[in-house]
Each structure stands twice: as structure tokens, then as C-alpha cells.
Amino acid sequence: ARPHRHLVYPTGTASRRHKHNPAIRIMQWNILAQALGEGKDGFIRCPVDALNWQERKYLIMEEILTYRPDILCLQEVDHYYDTFQPILASLGYQGSFLAKPWSPCLDVEQNNGPDGCALFYRRSRFSLQATAHLRLSAMMLPTNQVAIVQTLICQVTGQRLCVAVTHLKARSGWERLRSAQGADLLQSLRSITSQSSSSQTEAAPGTVPLVVCGDFNAEPSEDVYRRFSSSALGLNSAYKLLSSDGQTEPAYTTWKIRPSGESCSTLDYIWYTHDALSVDCLLDIPTEEQIGPDRLPSYHYPSDHLSLLCDISFREEPHRLM
Ligand code: NDP
Ligand code: CA
């Protein structure tokens, strides 16, 4: 059996929650495109059978259904139409998919189409106000990376939540491109969260609370991380709250061995508006022992990236505290 991951409740983050307003569970996961895993990545220590789609898809679905997130943000999805959309639709989710313009999956023989980002929300929990499909730019030029942004309305409270999913350019040497893509995404998010707010109902007039999930392909030391943590949108990275000081990202969110060597890094994030939202709990990160000597993916972990999961609630609105 695969190692159990615990939900961790950071101290000092408990929010007053209402029976009728339960927390919103958010999952972020780069699930590893099937075509890339078999055809391009070169995971030399991963057993070939662990990459077989007919089995791997059940491990991915099992992980999603174990936690039943209200919002599910995925990258490297190259089986949207034949797998995730139909299965998750039958389980009450509404999905949206945006392919990369020139997906590297298309270079792989017998590919299943381009990979891209997918965003799912639970239909019983939210209705949809607006969707934006973005192709990210860098220095005014279009790039091969995309983002989906949706403004959702909570069915119970009418509160709005803006959710974004993205997958920035990979590899070292591309730090400046990632930073520019991040700047472009932040600019779009500023515009979307201010447009879709109505002056009467929001805690902070003019802005809708925001959650941004992504494989940023950037360590916390990179410029794009600094851009997100210091933007005018007031974003904090949820997984810092797993650390004892609340200030440190996990040691890794992906860990793999390629012919070029071992790569253990923190690339995936869940950003949230800290003035309007609070994190109740997070799914812990498996230990090095649980991951095992051959690293990821494996029979236990179907992707080279770990899923991130947290429960987020709306903070009490200021006028109710007065
Ligand atoms: P990226 O550099 O962003 O990487 C694409 C994928 O490769 C990511 O999913 C990434 O995974 C994975 N990856 C990262 N590092 C490695 C590695 N060392 N070995 C193998 N895979 C890795 O790709 P782009 O979006 O910039 O696309 C580049 C590709 O797009 C080209 O290779 C080409 O195939 C295609 N292309 C085609 C064009 C055309 O005209 N036909 C034009 C432009 C691009 P992760 O995020 O998990 O790290
Ligand atoms: Ca990948």
C-alpha cells in the first residue's frame, strides 16, 4: 500500500468556520503527461510498468478521489477528453482544458494529443461566473505556456473566488522567461479580479479573493517567485505554512532521476490572497524514505511531481468583525 499522507493543521491558522460555509479543498498537481513520461523524460530508475497508462491513470484518479478536492488544478494533462473530463464529470465536477500551443507531447510517436492545464470545480459547490483562457506572453511576445483563470461563485454564500492554473516554462537557463510569464499572468489576474468584483459584496472593495495553482518550474530563489510573493495582489504561498517557522517552502515537490542526474526541487505552489483567505490545513509531503531510493514516479507515486492539497476558508469579512 502506498504511504499515507497526513493533513497538518498549522498552529495559529485556525479560522472561525461556519457550518454552512465549510473550507474549500484545493489540489494542485502536475500529473506527468503520458507521452512525456514514456517518450521524453528518461526516468531511468522508474520501472517501465509504473509508466503504463492503463494502470497509472487509476493511481492518479485514486489520489484525486481520496481527497475529493472542491477545486482541482492539473498540469501536463494529455488525457483530458478520453479520461479526466468524462470520469470527473460523472463525479460532479465541471472541467476546463487549455492545451499548450506547441505541446512537446506532439513530438512523441503515438501521442494522445497535446498536453495542457486543466481546472475542475465541484458543481454542487460553485457556479461559474467567467473563464479566461490565456496564452502567456513574455516581453510582449507569445510563448508556449498557458493559464486558465475562472471566477467562481460559492453556491451557499454567494462569495466569489478567482482560481488560476498555470505551468511555466521548464529548464534552467529560462529564468527570465519564467519571470516575464509570471509578470504577464499577474497583470491578467489583477485585471480579472478587479473587473469581476462588485463594490457591494467584497471584503476589500474592488478585488475578488484569488487562488493560483501551478507548476512554476522555479525554485523559491527565482525571480518569478519573488514577483508572486511581493505582488500588489497580496499573495502568500500556502505550503510555507507546513514549516515550523511558517516562512519556508518544502524541500521538494518533485524528485526524479534522469540520465543527467538526480533532480530534487520545489517547483509547485498554491498561492492565495492572505487578507481574504486563510489556510486551515495542508497535506504533508512524503519523506525521503517514503519516496524511496528510485525517487519518482514509482508504483506508489504516479507522477514525478507530488500533489499539493490544502483547505482554504474565507476570513471573516471586516464589517462583521466590527
Ligand atoms: P518546456 O521546456 O517548458 O518543457 C516541456 C516539458 O518537458 C515540461 O512538461 C517539463 O516538465 C519537461 N521537462 C523538463 N525538463 C526536462 C528534461 N530535462 N528532460 C525531459 N523533459 C523535461 O517546453 P516548451 O513548452 O518550451 O516546449 C518545448 C517543446 O515544444 C519543444 O521540445 C518542441 O517539441 C515543441 N515546440 C514545437 C514547435 C513547433 O514549431 N513544432 C515550436 C515550439 C516548441 P516539468 O514542467 O515537469 O519540469
Ligand atoms: Ca514534466
Note the main attributes of this structure:
six-stranded mixed beta sheet, 322 residues, binds calcium ion, globular, single chain, Deoxyribonuclease I, Chain A
Topology:
Layout lengths: L6 E2 L15 E7 L3 H6 L13 H15 L3 E7 L2 H11 L2 E7 L16 E7 L3 E13 L2 E14 L5 E8 L7 H21 L14 E6 L7 H7 L5 E3 L16 E5 L2 E5 L2 E6 L3 E7 L4 H4 L16 E7 L3 H4 L1
Helix pairs in contact: 4-5
The structure holds NADPH dihydro-nicotinamide-adenine-dinucleotide phosphate and calcium ion (CA).
Q: If you had to describe this structure to a student in words, what would you say it looks like?
A:
The strands form three sheets. The chain has a seven-stranded mixed sheet. The chain has a six-stranded mixed sheet with strand order 6-7-8-9-13-10, with helices on one face. A two-stranded antiparallel sheet has the order 11-12. The protein has a single domain, classed as Deoxyribonuclease I, Chain A. The protein is built from seven helices and 15 strands. The mean pLDDT is 94. The relative contact order is 0.19. Helix 4 packs parallel to helix 5. The chain has 322 residues and is α+β, with helices and mostly antiparallel strands. The structure holds NADPH dihydro-nicotinamide-adenine-dinucleotide phosphate (NDP) and calcium ion (CA). Calcium ion binds at residues 32, 36, 76.
